[in-house]
Amino acid sequence: MDFGAMLNGFTTVLQPLMFAYLVIGFLVGTFFGAVPGLTALLAMCLLLPVTYGMDTVAALIMLMGIHMAGMYAGSITATTINIPGAPSAMMTQLEGYPMMKRGEGARALGHAAIASAIGGTLGGITTTFSILLVVKLVLLIQTTDKFMLLLMALVVVSIVVRDSIAKAIVMTVFGLMIASIGSDVIGISTRFHFGIPALVVGVLLIPLVIAVFAFSELMRQAENPLKIEVKPVKFRRRDFIPKWSEIKEIGLRRYLKSYIIGYFVGILPGAGGSVGAFLSYAEGIRSSEHPERYGKGNVEGIACAETANNAVCGGAIVPMLTFGIPGDACAAIVMGALLIKGIVPGPLLMQQQLDIIAPMPAALALCAALLIIPSLLILGPYYVKIVQINRAVLYSFIAMVAMVGTYVATYDVFQMFVVVVIGCIAYFLRKQGYPMVPLLLGYILGDTAEKYFIRPLWVTLNPLVFISRPAGIIFLVLTFMFLYFLAIRPWLSQRKQGGERPTLPQVGPPE
Amino acid sequence: MRFKVNGELILSGLLLIAILGYIIMSIRIGLFREGVPESGLWPFLIGVVGLLPCAVVFIRSCRQAKERQNLNVNWRGFIIPGIIVALTVGFSFCLVPTGYFVATFPYCLGLAFLFEVGRENRSIVRKVFFSFIVALVLTMVGYIMFQLIFDVRLPEGWTPGLFELLKGLQF
User: Fold this and answer.
1) Could you report the per-residue pLDDT of B26-77, keeping only the tens digit for each?
2) Nearest CA in chain A to B76
3) Cβ–Cβ of B154/A408 closer than 8 Å?
4) Which residues of B touch A412 (CB under 8 A)?
5) Gyration radius of chain B over CA positions
6) Which residue from B minimizes the CA distance to A463?
7) Strands (E), A181-257
8) Is B17 on the interface with A (CB under 8 A)?
9) Least CB-CB distance to B39: which of A188, A390, A405?
10) How far is CA A496 from the centre of its chain?
């Protein structure tokens, strides 16, 4: 096992130019993660077209910086103005804002930064060492098993949602439908192009991503501009440094438990930082000696949530790099950046191009370890000003980058119209509460799922071929287990109690 | 049966129609030929999988719709997003023939003004002036970002001709 090559990733990231890209990604991610209405996912979507012209490793390092920073930065406005900058900061909001009202906002931000640094660093390091082990497992899996794994991923994506499972399934299916436009995987015909020559190649990734996450968000913000009232507040740099006694009271065990929860949630497709933060927060309440303090400004709650959501970043890239199944939407965009460069995630990539992959978890770890806390100490006093940025400037900039970016990525004006059409559809879907992450993951996994489904059937003409091997049966059993524990059991308990399906609180922009 | 028309009902109905159309088209493409899967099999299967939850959402929307009293679709709320769509379509048409600068400046100007219009305590003249400055700055920022930093080619369109015209006017 080439652990040496994985550790070389750290050396690569620490080169001055590469580190500069990491810092740029971190600053962009912090900005987009902190401003309500924007997300790191949006930043990554906008920058995806320009990764065409960039060095591959530099582009990936920058995207990792955005991912990690965006996950952390949501805690800034969650604490200061009671609006989470990212969905993953919802739990932080419950503790951080009460502390802000007590005049302890700086301390809350300090705890969020420390917890994010711990979770992000451990997540990146774990991925560095675990990814080569996971690749060995992947090599044992054959085509039929891969289809069952993808099926499991699509099911999990559909049921790990904050709201309606039915709507999530519909969106997953729509993602699969969009992926089926154009040439089929057998390569003998084209379908669903309605006679439009430009659609023969199908719907491309960049226009879809820009449409769903950037253009539709622009329309939403135009219809319902987020009004933010900010009270003047001054932070002193020394106030960001929490007391050592508080960190000791939180305890290494709590940090480690939260990181483990977040990391494994990150591996689940579609789960994302908000699920990781929620589960870790819930576990924090359950195992706390003083659960009554939660929800009233408790640093333990901040530590649980922020450690977990930043650990998600490391976990999310493991299935993406090894199986080609993104763990969250941001990992899906990173996968898109790889595909644009003609790099297909999987065991072959890990064997032949480890020098491209190794810097990714290293970038996550180094970003968390070296940038989060110093950025708070340097930029912390100005964070409140970030949210006061003029909306006209912000959204005009986003629109310009989105549309020009689409053109320069494809050099096809038709794709700009595709952005408008899909963007309008996504706008209406989001208005009615349809989640977009299942649509994106359904699209990304669609072609691969069809390939692994059709090819075995061509050879054997036997649908039972998918459960003819132990791995296929295991994935099928896991699929049913996820279905039962994440969907059926909550639905049954909801029916018994006669209440609403328990969901995460819907605060801030949807993922 | 009378329904209170709402966005959810319309959208879920359209999604159901789309999935049904997709299934029909996949059947027309063909599912099997001499026992071997055709190009329509996979789309057919995913369409069938999506049909049930789509129907569930549609039926749920129907149940929630009550006796029709008035339309509760807020059409006015779509005006500004509609203007954004129109501006973007216009920008898309104009980008290549007119060039980056000529197309982007009015696009940014229109968007900036649209978002400025809602701001209180500012005169219309100040809003127009501010939007003008924003559009100018963003157009240059976009040029620097794409053409100079990321080294991608932006469409020239009328720009060389405009420069020639300006040179001619100077003399």
Assistant:
1) 999 988 888 888 889 999 999 999 999 999 999 988 888 765 555 555 666 7
2) A223
3) yes
4) none
5) 25
6) B37
7) 182-183, 190-191
8) no
9) A188
10) 34
Q: Name the DSSP class of A296.
A: S
- Percentages (nearest 5) of helix, strand, coil residues in chain A: 75, 0, 25
Q: Does any CB of chain A come closer than 8 Å to the CB of residue B153? A: yes
Per the listing, tokens 């060389």 go with: B160
User: Closest residue of B to A447, CA-based?
Assistant: B42
Residue A87 makes CB contacts below 8 A (sequence gap 6+) with A39, A74, A272, A273, A274, A507, A508, A509, A510, A511
Collapsing DSSP to helix, strand or coil, A434 comes out as: coil
In angstroms, the Cα distances linking B138 to A285, B8, B154 are 47, 37, 15
**CA–CA dist A454, A419 (Å, integer):** 30
CB A89 within 8 A of CB A277: yes
Residue B151, φ and ψ in degrees, nearest 5: 60, 45
Residue A510 reports pLDDT greater than 70 = no
Mutate to test the interface with A, among B58, B152, B156 (most CBs of A within 10 A): B152
Mean pLDDT of the region A499-511 = 43
- Round to whole Å and give the CA distance between A309 and A261: 9
Q: Is B124 exposed, middle or buried (0-12, 13-18, 19+ CB in 10 A)?
A: exposed
Which ranges of A329-390 would DSSP assign to H, the alpha helix? 329-340, 347-352, 354-357, 359-370, 372-379, 383-386
State the pLDDT confidence band at A508, using cuts at 50, 70 and 90.
very low
Sign, Cα dihedral of A480, A319, A38, B140: negative
Bridge partner list, A130: none
Q: Do B49 and A432 touch (CB under 8 A)?
A: no
Q: How far is CA B82 from CA A8, B78, B139, in A?
A: 51, 6, 23
pLDDT 10s digits, B112-152 = 998 888 766 678 888 899 999 999 999 999 999 888 887 78
Do A313 and A301 meet the contact criterion of CB atoms below 8 Å apart? no
* A267 phi/psi in degrees, rounded to 5: -70, -30
Which is nearest to A331 in space by CA: A395, A421, A265, A281?
A: A265
- Intra-chain end-to-end CA distance of chain B, in Å: 75
Whole-number Å distance between alpha carbons of A258 and A438:
25
Tokens (6 digits) for A35: 């401003």
Instruction: Inspect the interface and report whether the beta carbons of B150 and A53 lie closer than 8 Å.
Output: yes
A375 vs A305: CA distance, rounded Å: 20
Question: Per-residue pLDDT tens for A362-408?
Answer: 999 999 999 999 999 888 888 877 767 888 898 899 999 999 989 98
Nearest CA in chain A to B18: A174
Burial class, A141, CB count within 10 angstroms (exposed 0-12 / middle 13-18 / buried 19+): middle
Cβ neighbour number for residue A305 with a 10 Å cutoff: 38
Checking phi first, is residue A275 left (phi over 0); if not, alpha (psi -120 to 50) or beta? alpha
Give the β-pairing of A182-183 and A190-191.
Answer: antiparallel
Are A189 and B39 in contact (CB < 8 Å)? yes
Single-letter code of the amino acid located at A398: I
**B47's tokens:** 């369409």
Determine whether the interchain pair A396/B25 forms a contact, defined as Cβ–Cβ distance below 8 Å: no
* Token pair 């519909």 in the structure block, residue: A170
Q: How far apart are CA A417 and CA A13, in angstroms?
A: 38
Measured between alpha carbons, how far is A358 from A344 in angstroms, rounded to an integer?
15
